[in-house]
Fold each of these.
Amino acid sequence: MIDLVKTMNDEEFVYSVNPNNFVRMIINTFDKGLEEIAKIPDIEPKILQDLYKSLKNETYIKTPMKPREKPLIPDPAARPRKYPDENKWIWDLIEELREELTRGLAPL
């Protein structure tokens, strides 16, 4: 919740919470959702125990993860050949979401 309050000298109005905190909170919720999805156990080894006899550990489904830093586009002519980060789309999605939320703060 955000409130509009007057300053001590009654000259201007300010928000009780910095609106940028809302952007951070939404992005953190998105990141936490990705982390929680990565904790979903894979049921295939439990169902097909004959095929997975060597697996004793709990395995988890393969999920997309947010890269730690902005993924770079590799040079296709470089040797050995490097491939783009498969999770670049998540980075792009989060950055687009951050930009749109920040743009939505402008009217405030």
Amino acid sequence: MKGILIFIFILNSALGIAQQAEFKFKDKTQRLGKIQEGDVVTLLYEFTNSGDIPLIISDYKVACTCTKVILPEEPILPGKQGQIKVLFDSTGKIAYQDRTIELYSNTAKSPDKIRFTLSVVNKE
């Protein structure tokens, strides 16, 4: 009997280690077409936590201060949806823009990446 209890304890410990949070994005890449220089664009990235523990997004990284990211303030429970809001200020930007946002979280694949592309044209 004691051996069975030890086996169950070890099995539960192993299963607990395998638990993960996981992003399942509706669309990881958004293509916006053309905008005018000076416009501020808002993008929403909707996702579901398809893992089995709460998803906690702790930080993000962008290459340019023209891109701001608003993360969920609360953990996203398993099976629940959340969204990440991205603001892109095209002031001083001209031509094709390809921006990647790295999301740091408690997923196994962290940092996860989302992306958007667009073309900025001069104001006329």
Amino acid sequence: MAMNTKIDNFLDNLARDLFGRTKNEAQSRGVCTWCGEVPGKFKDEISEKEYAITGFCQECQDKVFGEEEED
């Protein structure tokens, strides 16, 4: 089994244990991996890219990474 496949399987199992769904399952349903809600709008391109990686909506990304302070 290739390393990427092992990592992908580990991440899928972890997400399923933590959130009840994998990133791919959530994205195919159009919901956030973490909260299960429809993602809505993202603050910026980086947040959109993060959604592609984790499947987290903007609100859940803010919980994980903290909200960016405005100037």
Amino acid sequence: MYKNKVVGGEYGYAKYNSCSLLAFSSNRVADTTGISLGCKKLFLSTALTTPTTLLLLGGDFSNSILGDPAVSLEVFDYINEHPWIRKLSIYDMMTSNEAQLLSPLTDDLDQPIIGEISQQSSRFYKTDLTSIQIKIFEALLQSPKNLITNQAWQIYYALKQPTTPELSSLRENYIGQIGQLLAAAEWADNPTPTVTCDNDLDYDGKNECILANNHVFSIIEPEGGYLPFLFSINDRGIHQIIGPTWEFTVGLSDPSNWDLSLGLRSDPAQILGGFLNSLNDWDNYSITLQSNSLILDGMETTMSKSFSLLPNGLYVEIRDLNHSSNNSLIPLAVDPWLRFTPGWGDLYTSAKSPFSFQWGITSVETVDIRSTNQINGIAFNATHAALFYPEDPNYDYSRGHYLPFPLALIEISSTENYSVDITINP
């Protein structure tokens, strides 16, 4: 059976197997009835004459006729119902050793590009990328193919989506952080115990720390003294446990509050990770490494934080010699890749008591947070049922209603020293 390949993507021409690529914008794909007659003819003629040709559907679908759910449903149903059309994602093409994106997208349906095959590399059109973005992109191409790498690709393309200059500049502050995810992807491909602070994972010129055993992987950021990521691996596969809000959205606060000079703190509503006291109390921490733990001591405050590996989690101690009031947050992002599956919002469940909060998917992965201090847990789906009704200004939607999908958030407020056990349940 002849097969032509349809690639859903952003921009670009590609060279593929020394054959032609037809690239066209999303506005040329469809009309008000669904897939356009011209596009159907193109699929058929390509399959019959040059079956190895790539057909690149590009541009921002949300700003085209495909932004209409009824139209996009007809278009993608048509493609899905024709098995002789092989579907490739932009990730498939970017990670292929036989594909190479070269230049901006055209609206011309009939312009073929003939090129030689590139056996050695697959690289993005880089003329508008910063040096850090180029490093991240190249690291993405080399990263093991697993769920964490897939998540990193999704974040990369979300941060690179065309938008306003202000939001684009804000997103740039988070591109380098994808390197931390890629470190986790490397570990997940070959889980080995690691205790080190010798690697600059996010290309900011400063080293981050990795605490890992055969089942748990964590990153500790000395600049700010927090835990941006926690992953685990077991018989059911790879699981994310903790993750920052920028992993899902950037620009949470009012633009008038953004300060682009502050890097990761540019958007004050962002939660960068676990056990970060406050963006206003930002501090750099000195590091003491031990066999399976590390201790962070504030250089400008009296705060001390220790992180110790457990066979299936982490043990964290927070100490403050001045016993000043502090508010620690722990953003739980259990298996965020499941949010692209049907009915995913109903899968997450919680159980709470004054000193514990359990969150996750019972049949897949859950995490149990227990503390010597009282804790409060809120979740994105606490008011899930309310989404089926018109917005009611008199209804208390709770703070969890405004969390990015699919987060839950732990809050610990205290003026005393306290500890937290993070137990990951298979």
